[in-house]
């Protein structure tokens, strides 16, 4: 099985993407078994001038002018030649045996459609404060002690994050076709400063729809570099709001089984939490509430323009 490692990047931080590439250079999987694609998503200065891939015999720079992570990923999927696609973020460093484990597991267990890291550890530019600690989950960190596998779209433990995500190419192509047939799916992608982030889960859930398992392995480890700007309260508020909006939109797209709740009870619970919370916690709670309402309006507008993929 040949893998295609895809790095989608937009104005990357040089010191981080260089460490990402260093981690790839040190992979135990032979270069002949994988290619490297760097998708430059409309960076202000072409990164082909500053990011060297000549060390890899199958390394390529590809420019994608349409801004947005979904557009960059779709371009990578179309350009990839491997049977297995591995998405690596430009602020991540894979453990040296990451690709070897991924390829071996996907070869030996053909029922697995998507697989990812069970351990994503942070490397902070500055240490988070006590007030910030409860909200670090929004930064895609993970520390699973065991493997999880499932094909139930509602089982979150078995859903890998986008960082280090491996997915079979034909499943990724099915996702591309969905984005073409159902434009509503493309609103989940991150664009510029808009921190909607549901495209990772949307991509993975296509494995479940195709009848395959998704899973995470604790032996798959990643270091996630976190600059101090990611710990600014304004950023934590924005990303929490983005996750809330993404969750609502994914619920509608995939028709998750959600327990129906009386609106008055829900509103009362919100105000109870608001009165008890303070500082950053209160700001995030309010931002999440506003984000969910905005997502509801956005979905209503979309459903008037295009039918759901299940419609």
In short:
With 311 residues, the chain is an alpha/beta fold.
Task: Describe the protein's architecture and organization.
This protein has 311 residues and is α/β, with parallel strands linked by helices. The protein has a single domain (3-229), classed as Spore Coat Polysaccharide Biosynthesis Protein SpsA, Chain A. Helices cover 39% and strands 21% of the residues. It has 8 helices and 10 strands. It has helices at 14-25, 69-79, 98-108, 169-181, 199-209, 233-254, 263-276, 279-305, and strands at residues 3-9, 34-41, 59-64, 84-87, 92-94, 112-124, 142-143, 148-150, 165-168, 213-226. Strands 1, 2, 3, 4, 5, 6, 7, 8, 9 and 10 form a 10-stranded mixed beta sheet that branches. Helix 1 links the parallel strand 1 (3-9) and strand 2. Helix 4 packs across helix 5 and helix 7 runs antiparallel to helix 8 (279-305). The longest helix has 27 residues, at 279-305. The two termini are 36 Å apart. The model has no long low-confidence stretch (mean pLDDT 88).
What attributes characterize this protein structure?
Spore Coat Polysaccharide Biosynthesis Protein SpsA, Chain A; 8 helices; alpha/beta; 21% strand
List the helices and strands and how they pair.
Layout: E1 3-9, H1 14-25, E2 34-41, E3 59-64, H2 69-79, E4 84-87, E5 92-94, H3 98-108, E6 112-124, E7 142-143, E8 148-150, E9 165-168, H4 169-181, H5 199-209, E10 213-226, H6 233-254, H7 263-276, H8 279-305
Parallel strand pairs: 1-2, 1-4, 2-3, 6-10
Antiparallel strand pairs: 4-9, 5-10, 6-7, 6-9, 8-10
């Amino acid at each position: 099985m040949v893998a295609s490692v895809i790095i989608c990047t937009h104005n990357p931080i040089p010191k981080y993407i260089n460490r990402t590439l260093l981690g790839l250079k040190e992979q135990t999987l032979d270069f002949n078994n994988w290619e490297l694609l760097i998708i430059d998503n409309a960076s202000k200065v072409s990164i082909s001038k500053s990011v060297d891939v000549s060390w890899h015999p199958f390394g390529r720079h590809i420019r994608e002018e349409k801004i947005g992570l979904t557009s960059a990923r779709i371009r990578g999927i179309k350009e990839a030649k491997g049977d297995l696609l591995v998405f690596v973020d430009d602020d991540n460093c894979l453990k040296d045996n990451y690709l070897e484990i991924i390829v071996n597991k996907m070869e030996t267990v053909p029922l697995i459609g998507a697989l990812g890291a069970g351990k994503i550890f942070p490397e902070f530019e500055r240490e988070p404060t006590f007030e910030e600690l409860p909200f670090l989950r929004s930064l895609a960190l993970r520390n699973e002690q065991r493997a999880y596998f499932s094909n139930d779209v509602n089982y979150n433990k078995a859903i890998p994050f986008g960082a280090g995500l491996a997915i079979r190419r034909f499943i990724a192509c099915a996702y591309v076709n969905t984005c073409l047939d159902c434009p509503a799916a493309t609103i989940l992608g991150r664009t510029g400063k808009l921190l909607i982030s549901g495209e990772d889960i949307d991509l993975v859930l296509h494995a479940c729809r195709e009848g395959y398992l998704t899973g995470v392995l604790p032996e798959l480890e990643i270091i996630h570099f976190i600059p101090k700007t990611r710990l600014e309260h304004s950023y934590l508020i924005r990303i929490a709001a983005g996750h809330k909006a993404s969750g609502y939109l994914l619920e509608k797209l995939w028709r998750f089984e959600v327990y129906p709740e009386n609106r008055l009870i829900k509103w009362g619970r919100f105000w109870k939490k608001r009165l008890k919370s303070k500082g950053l916690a209160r700001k995030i709670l309010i931002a999440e509430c506003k984000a969910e309402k905005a997502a509801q309006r956005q979905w209503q507008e979309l459903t008037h323009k295009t039918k759901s993929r299940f419609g």
